[in-house]
Specification:
alpha/beta, TIM Barrel, 8-stranded parallel beta barrel, 14 helices, 12 strands, 43% helix, binds L-rhamnitol, binds zinc ion
Length: 417
């Protein structure tokens, strides 16, 4: 167990070190308290959901690994999420997919979903002081195929338009109930496995479907749209590419979702922040970790993720970004994955908040090597002492003390599933 007085002592030293650079760590701790992740419900069960008629995961995404103990029903999933939340400092939102409705053993097709299927989630969220976000679900369904909202077959298109409209209406009610906008993400897997020649037509369909879906204006939900470079089994062409959605979002004043796994391997998602925020109102993040492809590995405090959060803070865009997570690793203890990934995203944000403003000033003054020197120093300033203090203040295990809690939960709960 990490000794509490050691955490306090280290924090005092860190506070002084940062103060020398004009950074007020107490203020940063407050900022971090107001930083809310939107935890994705789908890490707990490998994107299965609770549809009675659920088939295998398809639609360009895949979860790998067979670690025992995944949540098999809504009660187990809720218990796992609450356990994860108890090990992550701060208060965080929960991001639901439509397939996680409380269907009560009934077959409810995607074009039949209603608010009542999410009422128990709304009640649960209220009881647990958690705000909800939402996602329409186009994947893993007999009508998914490789094209949904962009399908040339009008009947299929209409099916998914109806689904997505219903999801927006549900999001609106969630937003009303929680007195805070519910953010609904729209990602469809549409694409082609092999060389194809009707790209213009598919994209025209997608555009028209979106226009129809977004025709209803709501006050308590916000839409965000997520592009992608390719999906598994849909490697050759993606209808909803980054360009497509960036243009759509800019033209229609929609939020854009940046999923860190959805770009070419050497392309920087972080560099998009200051570019697209000139033209779109807000951003949603899907923080993930691509390893060679959009593999959705657990988020770590690695360079690309750090860079992403630095870019947000440097752009002064803290309140224009929403912080969703989107990894799903079934190869390790899923609770461990939640806790490590969430804490890693927080640490990235913390380090960005701790960056001395003087560096930006130096750059404007043309002080090149001084900028470089400070950026180097920042890497080793005692930010970890500030994070430990944050955990202590929030009454959650400091440092790797959470391992014992997860192991105990595994022994008592998940291993018995
Ligand atoms: C898929 C997208 C999408 C999904 C979730 C489950 O490539 O990233 O956001 O991961 O909606
Ligand atoms: Zn995503």
């Amino acid at each position: 167990m990490v000794n509490e007085s050691l955490v306090l002592k280290a924090y005092e030293v860190a506070k002084e070190r940062y103060a020398a650079y004009g950074v007020d760590t107490d203020k940063v701790l407050e900022q971090l308290q107001n930083f809310h992740l939107s935890m994705h419900c789908w890490q707990a069960d490998d994107v299965n959901g609770f549809e009675v008629q659920a088939g295998d995961l398809s639609g360009g995404i895949q979860s790998t690994g067979n670690y025992p103990g995944k949540a098999r029903n809504i009660d187990e999933l809720r218990a796992d999420i609450l356990k994860a939340k108890s090990l992550i400092p701060g208060n965080h939102r929960l991001n639901l997919h439509e397939i996680y409705g409380d269907f009560q053993g009934q077959v409810v097709d995607r074009d039949e979903v209603e608010l009542k299927h999410f009422q128990s989630w709304i009640d649960w969220a209220k009881e647990n002081d958690t705000k909800l976000d939402f996602n329409s679900s186009s994947f893993a369904h007999p009508k998914s195929g490789s094209l949904s909202l962009s399908n040339p077959d009008k009947a299929i298109r209409d099916f998914w338009i109806e689904h997505t409209k219903r999801c927006r209406a549900i999001s609106e009610e969630i937003g009303k109930a929680q007195n805070d906008p519910c953010i609904m993400n729209l990602w469809v897997h549409d694409g082609c496995k092999d060389n194809s020649v009707n790209h213009y037509i598919y994209r025209e369909h997608l555009k028209n479907s979106l226009d129809e879906i977004f025709a209803t204006k709501y006050d308590n939900m916000k839409d965000c749209i997520e592009g992608k470079v390719f999906g598994i089994g849909l490697e050759s062409f993606t209808v909803g590419s980054h360009d497509f959605y960036t243009a759509y979002a800019a033209k229609n004043n929609k939020m854009l979702t940046i999923d860190t796994g959805h770009y070419h391997p050497t392309e920087s998602p972080a560099d998009k922040v200051s570019a697209v925020l000139q033209f779109v109102p807000e951003l949603m993040l899907h923080v993930s970790r691509p390893v060679r492809w959009d593999s959705d590995h657990v988020t770590l405090m690695d360079d690309p993720t750090l860079e992403l959060f630095y870019e947000i803070v440097r752009a002064g865009a803290l309140d224009r970004v929403h912080y969703g997570l989107d990894f799903f690793d079934g190869a390790i203890n899923r609770l461990g994955a939640y806790v490590i990934g969430s804490r890693a995203a927080q640490k990235c944000m913390l380090r960005a908040l701790l960056e001395p403003a003087i560096i930006r000033q130096y750059e404007l003054e043309g002080k090149g090597y001084q900028v470089m020197a400070l950026l180097e120093e920042c890497k080793a300033l005692p930010w970890a002492a500030v994070y430990d203090m944050f955990c202590l203040k929030n009454n959650v295990p400091v440092a790797d003390d959470f391992i014992a809690c997860i192991d105990a939960y595994e022994k008592e709960v998940t291993s018995k599933r």
